[in-house]
Amino acid sequence: MARALKHSTALMAVLLAVVTLAVYWPVTGYDFVSLDDPRYVTQNQHVQAGITWAGLGWALRETEAANWHPVTLFSHMLDCQLYSLRAGGHHVTNLLLHVANTCLLFALLLRMTGRRWPSFVVAGLFGWHPLHVESVAWIAERKDVLSTLFGLLALWAYVRYAEVRSLMSQVLSPRSAVRSPQSAVHSPRSTDDAPRSTLHGSRFTFHASRFYVLSLLCFALGLMAKPMLVTLPFVMLLLDFWPLRRFQLNPQHSTLNTLPPLLLEKLPFLLLTALSCAVTLWAQGREHAIMTVQRMPMNYRAANAVLACYAYVGKTLWPARLAVFYPHGHTTLTWPILLAGAGLALISAAVLWLRRLPCLAVGWLWFMGTLVPVIGLVQVGEQAMADRYTYIPSIGLFILIVFGLSDLAGRARLRETAMTVLAGLALVACLISTRQQLGYWRNSEALYRHALAVTEGNYVANNNLAVDLFNRDRAEEAVGFYLAALRYAPNYADAHSNLGNAYAKLKRRHEAIAEYRVALKLNPNLARTHYYLANELLSDGDAAGAEANYQASLALDPDRADAQYQLATVLQARGEVAAATQHFHQALRLKPDWIEALNNLAWLLATQPEARFRDGKQALELASRAVALTNTNKAGPLDTLGGALAEVGRFTEAASTARTAARLAQAAGAADLEREITAHLQCYERGIPFRESGTATNAPADLPGRSRAGVGPAS
């Protein structure tokens, strides 16, 4: 009989894994989306480098997307190591983590309760519910599925620890032990009590400590993947009540005395929670991600929190009109908010009143408690709520519904067939709805157009759709969606900045400059907007204004290689060679294989008239790298290499290189560059290194923001 049950349980776990893989498998053919995926992966050079010591150090000491989550960044690095930027591989990792979470939840509930079918249904609802599509199909939400994996492992280890503690109390003090019908293993009493108790105590203490440390370690790793796990100690205390039954809320019962030790054993977990909260607030404050109270008052946040909780319950029961972004819709306490609050209070009162069904209270408190970090009292970002925030909290609702109905059915002696049919219909409905919701994640345009179709006033979806269109050379179409976003949110700084980009691409320079200035007035901390404004000012002939904005961009984000490079060209054109050299070096530190930066710095080091600024050896090294990166078929880098060779006295090689460069320039139709290279060649043939000024003909200084590195035949 036991063997048959074990086989049946294994088949249920396999079924969960196979069906989850099948329903989500189309995502393996999807692309990255433009929302956060670039920041985490496709435009993150540290991540794209794969697993390196430098990358691991960066992930441990820096923040990304207003969070400190090195374990998540490690996982993205590993994906890039394995799959490069093939999106399908990154999606496979997310999917496998979700499958693991689904099976692990089944195993955890089964171990705690000993009830297979309710545990299976809860795991199935978790694995197949459409609210969880966002966490699985969005590569940037790796932190959801990864942190949950560690969170469930921490709970599993904690349950094993609790089981050992229960056995320990039974062996060492059998009369006063609290016996758990689900997890306690009963051992016969020894006739040689004292020695055996000592032996058992030592062994049990070792095993309990091992599982306790494992739980603590998994909890720490989970927090380093996503700090939403900060409420896990609270979940552990709920599980102590049910189904582990380590204490009861009955003042007349002796087990109430066990509550202080249970709280004490959570202390290390609570210390990690406090540390994670402090680090998270620091990281979010560092990137100015926390919305100020002036911008969003606390009474508004509280009202939105009530509405969001109510909406999460509603979307769990009826998952319709799901969107990647939900805008705020209410600003005052109105009857919908009061009604939602009354509904939540009524549910809370009901589950606490039904004390004979502890699964109801535990499920509801799990749901409400784990929502606290993301309910918006500390508002990070623009969203009123998010589907991904239900990934862990929904487990509580599923426990409440499934175990609650199962217990009620048993008490009312309802037929098991009816409950099975009801559960089957719910799971099938979830599978159908999940497959449909998954399709909206096939690309960015489909995702944002769906969000616009199911929400109102969605300024973020309008802006993001416009960004996607802009990135696919549909700038004229993008302008309309940027303007729509600004109609809903006139003070949306990002939309003003992005509209400026569209105007710049359409050669509407003065309109672009105006939009950038509005964006910076609304939010002076937009490093990229300072950079874009500087570019347009430079094109408009305002070099002083451009320099100031490049400096402002770098003050906010010193790791902007593009701003370092552009500032270097401005300084070089103004004759500030030492400062220009420093910024070129910074650009190459951030982007070592940037051909334009290699080329321009090499030319500067090879041709400056003042000897203190020249470094022929370094110029030769940089120019050689640039030529190698262009496969020796671009005129600009070859011309620079000729200048570097001449600077170190290798005039014959310099002349030969210059002749090749001149032929490439001629083949590319670059007549002006061909004449310049010919002038350089004349110097080398006379045994004279070229100088930017002096007796030789001057080489043209590169215009700021431009480079001679790309001149050559089309590749």
Describe the structure.
It is a single chain. By secondary structure, the protein is an all-alpha fold. The chain has helices spanning 2-24, 37-42, 45-48, 53-61, 70-83, 87-113, 116-128, 133-137, 142-172, 193-223, 232-241, 259-265, 267-286, 298-317, 335-353, 358-371, 393-412, 416-439, 444-454, 459-471, 475-488, 493-505, 509-522, 527-539, 543-556, 561-573, 577-590, 595-607, 616-629, 635-647, 651-667, 671-685. It folds into two domains: 2-187 and 194-437, no CATH class; 593-715, Alpha Horseshoe (Serine Threonine Protein Phosphatase 5, Tetratricopeptide repeat). The chain is built from 32 helices and no strands. It is elongated, with a radius of gyration of 32 Å.
What's this, in brief?
The chain has about 725 residues and is mainly alpha-helical.
Total domain units: 2
Annotation field: number of helices:
32
How many E strands? 0
Percent strand: under 5%
Low-confidence stretches: 176-196, 694-706, 710-715
Global morphology: elongated
Q: Rg to the nearest angstrom?
A: 32 Å
Q: Between the first and last Cα atoms, what is the distance in angstroms? A: 71 Å
Structural class, by secondary structure, is mainly alpha
How is the biggest beta sheet arranged?
Answer: none
